[in-house]
Amino acid sequence: MKYVVLVSHGNFAKGLLDSLEMLAGKREEVIAVGLENGITADQFAIDFAEAIKVIPSDAEIILLADLIGGSPLTTAMSVLSSLNQMDKTLVLGGMNLPLALTTVLMKDTLDDDLLVASVTSEATGAIKQFVLETKDEDDDI
User: What is the pTM of this model?
Assistant: First the structure.
């Protein structure tokens, strides 16, 4: 089984987990950890390490982060590296709900390359401007 770990600034990861549970049901293999305001990166490392203790050492991990290069991601990667888990970890940044949902639903059915292609396509494809078209009054004549 692959585990999905969501990391973010603030409560974004936990909020995203809540939305995922509404759409895909509760999943024990999805974990969310946020670097909350006022918490140091060192404390986040401790919180992250505690949250991932449930992941077996031989499990694969898909780490989704809000920002590439942000403290939550770099700290999480540092913790995973110290646990010798990075060789079994796939990392994606810029997470949004379509990316996370597709990851959760497809993680065990696609190989890593196909999963990355699929989830990034879903994530970018979901970004669109929504325009509400109104009917002109002249059209009623």
Answer: 0.91
